[in-house]
# Entry
Amino acid sequence: MRLRVWKKTYDEAVDVQRRHEDRILAQPGVTGVSTVLRDGVPVLEVSVDPDAEVPELLRVAELDGVPLRVERRRYEPH
# Structure
């Protein structure tokens, strides 16, 4: 098993989010997208309605070198 080392900074991850945000949000069931830190690593976190199927576009481990995590929940703004 190979250990993946992520090298994107938080700001670079936000840039990736901005490039893909409109396309991600246009997917059925997607309710939100954000850049978060998980264990010090920037991650694109996409919220998908628990009653919806995860869109094919989001069935990947990363987008442009940034890890992608799908959360099965309704988006709730803070």
About this structure: The radius of gyration is 12 Å.
